[in-house]
Amino acid sequence: MNGKAKILTVRFLGYLGGFLLFYAPASLVQRLLISVFHLPGNADIHAVCSRVALTNLASGKGISVISIVGIVFALVFLSAFFLGPLFCGKLCPAGAFPEYLSRLIPEKFQVKLQSALNPAPVRYGMLAGFLIAPVMGYSVVCAYCNYTMFSRLTLSVLSLDVGILTSTNVITIFFWLIVLGAFTKGGRGYCSYICPVGAAQSLLHFLGAKFRFTYKLAFDPHRCVSCGLCAKECPTLALAVKDDGQLSYQRISCLSCGQCIQLCPKKALVYKNGADGWRRAAGDEKLLQPQPILNESASS
Ligand code: SF4
Ligand code: SF4
Ligand code: SF4
């Protein structure tokens, strides 16, 4: 198995773990919380859905911290602030499924969507709409939810019954898996433009990364040889090698999947706390004054 296949396999095991932890029929997290803390709730994805929690917060209903969704919500969003959006990068099978599908499609048939259309305004416009809708009396929680679609899809496969998919489900699946998935470079179009949970985590990470005590993707420009390997494989196109050879990075688009770190032949990228080595200008984190930020142990 070559290095890239090994990285993808290890990542796949993380997403499989995420599936077993959060999705029926296993739903290990929900079952654990129900049995240990005697909390009310079901052993399905809705019991831990951060979208429901975000909607309840926005509509003033609030959420109980001592509940399945309250505990998971706190863990996911606190970890995003201190450690980056690890739920997205390491565990979420609904985000990873279209990414892995996209690897089956030749690149010449795919669109580099995030290069053509800046994700941030769309993504945060969607998040704002998502949060405002319940205040206006509307609910958009499940209408375009890829968590629900992933759950229905897997239950359909496991029960060999496609009858539980509605026509609306089929349309959402088409955009999530095909248009924004398989035929989008990196397969993470849904993550980059639509998903409110990912948008909220990325925003927290963007803010958290300004503090030295938080963990983040750091860069040592003195090691980088501008080979572009990291950028070529980044599923959200958060990394790019500019015409002048400098590596640019959009932290707000990063999933903290760690793939670029493992692929870099020069160990120029690392996940650590402290200084990040990137410089920021006009929303684009550009390298202006390179400074070495890695210690000697990273050079071995
Ligand atoms: S952005 Fe949403 S769908 Fe994508 S990985 Fe994160 S939580 Fe999952
Ligand atoms: S893979 Fe490493 S050396 Fe190559 S461009 Fe990325 S950071 Fe630089
Ligand atoms: S920049 Fe690196 S860690 Fe972030 S999404 Fe891209 S490959 Fe993953």
Provide a brief overview of the structure.
The chain has helices at 3-22, 28-37, 50-58, 68-83, 86-91, 93-102, 113-116, 119-135, 146-159, 167-182, 189-193, 196-208, 229-233, 259-263, and strands at 216-219, 239-241, 247-249, 269-272, 279-281, 284-286. The protein is mainly α and 300 residues long. The protein has 2 domains: 3-206, no CATH class; 212-299, Alpha-Beta Plaits.
In words, what does this structure look like?
The chain is mainly alpha-helical. It folds into 2 domains: 3-206, no CATH class; 212-299, Alpha-Beta Plaits (2-Layer Sandwich), CATH 3.30.70. 50% of the residues lie in helices and 7% in strands. It has 14 helices and 6 strands. It has helices spanning 3-22, 28-37, 50-58, 68-83, 86-91, 93-102, 113-116, 119-135, 146-159, 167-182, 189-193, 196-208, 229-233, 259-263, and strands spanning 216-219, 239-241, 247-249, 269-272, 279-281, 284-286. The two termini are 23 Å apart. Mean pLDDT is 88; it is low at 280-291 and 296-300. The structure holds iron/sulfur cluster (SF4) (3 copies). One iron/sulfur cluster (SF4) binds at residues 88, 92, 94-95, 146, 190-191, 195, 197-198.
- Looking across the biggest beta sheet, what order are the strands in? 1-4
Calculate Rg over CA atoms.
19 Å
Q: What hetero molecules are in the model?
A: iron/sulfur cluster
What value does the average pLDDT take?
88
Quaternary class: single chain
Q: N-to-C SSE series?
A: HHHHHHHHHHHHEHEEHEEE
Approximately what portion of the residues adopt beta-strand conformation? 5-15%
Helix segment tally: 14
Main pleated-sheet profile? 2 strands, antiparallel
Distance between the termini: 23 Å
Tally the structural domains.
Answer: 2
How many strands appear in the DSSP assignment? 6
| Helix content percent band | 40-55%
Estimated structural class: mainly alpha
Uncertain parts: 280-291, 296-300
Tertiary shape? globular
